[in-house]
Amino acid sequence: MGVFALVVFVAFGVFGKPDNVTFQWSKPDDVIHIPDFIVGSSLVGLAIGAILILIAAIVAVNASRRRRNPQWISLIFGFFAIIALLAWLAAGNAVPFAFILGNAIVLAVPIALGAMGGIMSERVGVVNIAIEGQLLTGAFLAAVVGSLTDSLLLGLVAAMVGAALLSMVLAAFAIKYLVDQIIVGVVLNVLVLGVTNFLYSQWLANDGERSNFPGTFDITPIPFLSDIPIIGPALFENRLTTYLAFIIIPVLWFFLFKTKLGLRARAVGEHPLAADTVGINVARTRFWWVTLGGVVAGLGGAALTIGSVGAFGRGMSGGQGFIALAVVILGRWHPFYAAAAALLFGFSIILRVWANQVSPGIPTDFITMVPYLVTLIAVVGFVGRVRAPAADGQPYIKG
């Protein structure tokens, strides 16, 4: 942390750009308009650099005294570091917070929903490497069925059903036949990638107008709430797939941690023998939770097509399923923490696009790398505190 804080102070502050940066908190046509804030880019770097150095010093002192640092301190550190980066990139330009936040949320939805599916699987003890395949299956079926039936809702249902069927295959091999869960997941990913690539090149590429042009759900603003500055357009002016993600995340948290069903599921993932002893059917619980996880991941795949670009592309999941798997771990198998981690990766994607517009001379690869460094710093703050479900990845043989 100390080294990173010094880099921010020196690079963005001492040797920062002298131009002013404009922080735009709202859009010009917003009902409630917050005035823009104009400040020197290097001044922001100096101020935030000093704050980061102070935070790093507090962390170091606590570590020397063997005191545990609060978990939120790393998040605050990362937040200020991102603000400094934005001010440096936008020197001489503006930072449109509403635009960045809104697009980051949209881009984070497939990752977040994939992570929710992974959490549902791993909380009952089944490692779900097949999230990538589930996202790709959902994206493909949503586009094709939505086009052929001229119904986006049917495309959405097809995406969830298709990914659920894929999850059933994973569950059957992992639970009944006791095949290594990681191997099954990798095989399913390769299978789905090959099948969708073949169908795309042999069918969709030649008949795209009829079979691969479903369109997208309309953007539906929620009255009054969408008028709130900054967070209003970002949270309450979205498509159906994004709103469903907003609902699924807290509902999953509630079921996992506030209901008997969730308690039983977590018991199966922590100590299946004890769960079996008290009458919980371990195999059935694992099978249906993995299947429902596929339903959620399939919705994430639909968000890639009918919730975003409006068509299917070859390999369009682009590794987001594997990112979702990392989000599960970074989020400590908790829906809210995983959603926050997914938002960070969504931010990294929109940051690359936005930075290329305001600072075309800066390599986009470098810009893309920075949020991952922030993620690494956040992970350091959780070292020793992240623990997977005890029976995660372990097959259960009923005695």
Which properties best describe this structure?
two-stranded antiparallel sheet; 16 helices; three-stranded mixed β-sheet; 399 residues; ABC transporter involved in vitamin B12 uptake, BtuC; 5 strands; mainly alpha
Describe this structure in words.
- The protein is mainly alpha-helical.
- The protein folds into 2 domains: 1-92, no CATH class; 98-348, Orthogonal Bundle (ABC transporter involved in vitamin B12 uptake, BtuC), CATH 1.10.3470.
- The protein contains 16 helices and 5 strands.
- The protein has helices at residues 2-14, 41-64, 72-89, 97-122, 131-149, 152-176, 181-204, 208-211, 231-236, 240-258, 260-270, 272-277, 282-309, 320-330, 335-358, 364-381, and strands at residues 20-24, 37-40, 94-96, 220-221, 237-238.
- The strands form 2 sheets. Strands 2-1-3 form a 3-stranded mixed sheet. A two-stranded antiparallel sheet has the order 4-5.
- Helix 1 (2-14) packs antiparallel against helix 2 (41-64), helix 4 (97-122) crosses helix 5 (131-149) and helix 5 runs parallel beside helix 7 (181-204).
- The longest helix has 28 residues, at 282-309.
- It is globular, with a radius of gyration of 23 Å.
